[in-house]
Design brief:
heterodimer, A: 150 residues, alpha+beta, 31% helix, B: alpha+beta, 5 helices, 12% strand, disordered N terminus
């Protein structure tokens, strides 16, 4: 059974452009909707404040793993770690990898997230709550945004 | 939330966490596959298709039972084992949520780099 997430995306932009959007913490924060403090450094924790409406009270944290220019960017994090009252640091994080490949028309981006078998069920319950309390609305907003911006 | 409900939730969470760890093993996954059709099977039936000892099958079934993925019931002189789909459905729903989040985030990335 499926125990990982994999997304493949054709982007009409050169690899260098996509790489900058992913590996530059300020650009990353623009589309990920988090205000990250300082640059991404391999082996170091990156932190910031989520700017997504409704989640501004939430700190975003990830440990940057690999930075291989124009090829691979990866980090580990605790997905849905949105409750400030909960210390997630004792749990097993998931691994997120961004892989870039040049294509005739731009860049093929493959994003994988693995390690879900170690995410405790309490967190999954949170994901359901998030979905109930506005995730569907967020999805609609984003669809509209993407449709406008192409 | 009442104390009793909170305790019940904690027990359920522990079971689910064990469930996902249990599925990380290939042998147990194959036993789950053998039971996923919905038909209850005995240890003898499961051992036939598994190329391992009855003892080994029994050990893996205990892990799956503990995780809530498999239930057993008495039928005459033998135990029958059956698949409990609920924990697996919950993992799938969870992954769907995370997957939807990635779709949204990557949609924004696409807009960002293509503009």
């Amino acid at each position: 059974m499926q125990n990982r997430i994999e997304k493949r995306l054709e982007l009409k932009a050169p690899v260098a452009r996509v790489w900058r959007a992913i590996s530059d913490s300020r650009e990353f924060g623009t589309w990920f909707k988090v205000k990250i403090e300082g640059p991404f450094v391999a082996g170091r924790q990156a932190e910031g404040q989520i700017t997504h409406p409704g989640y501004e009270h939430v700190r975003w944290k990830a440990v940057i793993r690999q930075i291989e220019p124009e090829r691979l960017f990866s980090f580990t994090w605790y997905p849905y770690a949105v409750d400030p009252q909960v210390d997630y640091s004792g749990e097993n994080p998931t691994l997120v990898e961004f892989r870039l490949e040049p294509t005739a028309t731009g860049t093929l981006l493959t994003v994988t997230e693995t390690g879900f078998d170690k995410v405790p069920a309490s967190r999954r319950a949170e994901a359901f709550r998030m979905n109930d309390s506005g995730w569907a609305q967020q999805m609609k907003n984003i669809e509209a945004h993407v449709a406008r911006g192409g | 939330m009442s104390r009793a409900a909170a305790d019940g939730g904690a027990v359920r969470r522990r079971q689910h966490a064990a469930g996902f760890a249990a599925l990380g093993d290939e042998t147990r996954l194959s036993l789950v596959n053998a039971l996923a059709g919905g038909e209850p099977r005995s240890i003898a039936q499961l051992t036939d298709g598994a190329r391992m000892s009855r003892q080994a099958v029994s050990k893996h079934l205990r892990v799956l039972q503990h995780a809530g993925l498999v239930r057993s019931r008495r039928s005459g002189r033998e135990n029958l084992f059956e698949f409990n789909p609920t924990p697996v459905q919950e993992l799938c729903s969870y992954l769907e949520r995370v997957s939807a989040q990635w779709d949204a985030v990557l949609g924004r990335l696409k807009t960002f780099v293509e503009r």
